[in-house]
Amino acid sequence: MKRMLSWAAIAVGVVYFFLPLVGMLEFSLKMRRGEYSLDAYRSVMGDPQFQATFGYSVLMACLTIVFGVLVVVPTVFWVRLKLPRLRPFMEFITLLPLVIPPIVIVFGYIRLFNTSSWLPLTGSALGTDFLLMCGYAVLALPYMYRAVDTGLAAIDLGTLTEAAQSLGAGWITILARVILPNVLVAVLSGAFLTFAIVIGEYVFAALLDRPAFGPYLVWAGGNKAYEPAALAVITFALTWACMALIQLATKFSKHTRMPR
Amino acid sequence: MRTSRLWRALPWNGLGVLPFALFALLFLLLPTANIVAGAFVDGSGDFTLVNIANLFTPEIMNAFWLSIRLSFTSALIGCALGFAIALAVVLGGLPAWVRGVVMTFSGVTSNFAGVPLAFAYVATLGRVGFVTLLLRDWFGVNIYALGFNMISFWGLVAAYVFFQIPLMVLIITPAIDGLKREWREAAEVLGATGGQYWRMVALPVLGPSLLGTLALLFANAFGAVATAIALTGSLLSIAPILLFNQIRGDVLQDPHLGYALAFAMIVITGISNGVYVVMRTRAERWIK
Question: Could you tell me the CA-to-CA distances from B16 to A73, A95, A192, B20 in Å, in that order?
Fold first, then answer.
């Protein structure tokens, strides 16, 4: 009886989640009349707009990851090592991007960094790109911070740092060659999550008016019939790949870490 | 070399967090503070509550009310279905692999929101969507003739529930794991039935987690813009879409009313996240 109910709950979930996925897959294959074909994918891949916006978003995601790691890892390291009293405060700050709706944050950017302000980032394309990257880093901050914080909690920071220092290492060396390799798995899972967030993001890119993949998706949704389904399949596959890579990284680390 | 006492008393350790502090200040705190401040001043920069008062027009109130109902309904359905799935996975006596599959799948689908989700829905329930045609050709049911519309309240709820369920599963599963076997055994020894155990032990313990997650799902739906825009083409007047149109083209014809709108959104998501945090601390009293 209990098992029956359990299977029923799972079945409802499966139906609810697989219908849209099957639906989008089936729809994306229907471009040619009367038979299934990959025409929609061919059309998407051949679209120079797709190539440009997708490339832009991939580049953005990579820059955001590098920037996020550079900001978060040294900070978490330093707070854990020297300023543990700041931790609740850090928890609070890094939770804020989940509390404040992204659309409000980007609204603030437009007001704070407009062309007549003290820091006119939105005045040039490069400045806006930088602003967009920072915005994405803010969006990813809750995930990146938690991933790195959990990773650093598992290693003995004080001992490692002292050992490195007594061998003559400076802070940069300690961070790059001792700390980072130890939390690489945590950083990687934060990175893949960041990638999944950034790649299809719409609100920031649209309101800052940058040629990213998200706005292209919305444009395609309004102007094409079968291509949007193909684009959704591609994005879903990418999200899936990111999550699979996180699992893989975690599994890999379990094999390499010494038992205590 | 002697360093002066003052020199050493300076908070040099604080320098290590300076880059982060600068980043958070410039790209998170100041922009938000700027909007909040803008909600409380008029065109010439003087303090005023007029912008907040101006929010109480039928247009804006309706947008907020629609947003609140939409977020609450999708959160409630997401909570119920997600809870059922999590219960089934943890306590349902299913094979162990089911749990791994469900958790991984939840991780993926909770991140599969925004524009692509809207496309998946159009491909499924749109006019020539997969399920629409399936129902028409196999069962002779034309849902559009029956009055179904994707760009409606329930159309959006159905789409939002898609990312609410997996989030619920991810958050509530650890809480259900925290129910100790001893509690159930103790209840049974004292002669409790299964129903009594759930009503008087398990649900009170899980209560804060359930309520907290409901608040989190509500906030999650309230701030979501992309799915609704891709689905409705910014036609449906919910609060975030109204704000989006305001930022794009000042549709309210009053920039400061826009800031007040944004401020009201922060207040609502802030309250529901506050409920989540309070409830989580309560829940952790039991789950140690």
Answer: 11, 21, 26, 8
* Chain A, window 10-29: residues with a beta carbon less than 8 angstroms from a chain B beta carbon: 10, 12-13, 16-17, 19-24, 26-28
Lowest mean pLDDT among B4-8, B46-50, B226-230, B243-247: B4-8
ipTM of the complex: 0.84
The tokens for A182 are: 């130890």
Best of A57, A95, A104, A239 to disrupt the B interface (most B CBs within 10 Å) is A104
Determine, yes or no, domain membership for A158: yes
Full-model pTM: 0.86
pLDDT at position A43 over 80: yes
Say whether B116 and A193 touch across the interface (CB within 8 A): no
SS (H, E, C) B239-260: HHHHHHHHHHHCCCCCHHHHHH
**What confidence score (pLDDT) does residue A241 get?**
85
Q: What is the mean pLDDT of residues A34-60?
A: 87
Instruction: Check CB contact under 8 Å for B81 and A13.
Output: yes
Residue A248 has pLDDT above 90, yes or no: no
* Domains (range + CATH), chain B: 14-48 (no CATH), 62-284 (1.10.3720.10)
What is the reported pLDDT for B70?
A: 92
Quick check: helix, strand or coil at residue B47?
strand
Residues 166-225 of A with CB under 8 A from B: 193, 196-197, 200-203, 207, 214, 217-218, 221-222
Give dist(CA A165, CA A174) in Å, integer. 8
| Out of B30, B233, B244, closest to residue A103 by CB | B244
Q: Is residue A189 assigned to a domain?
A: yes
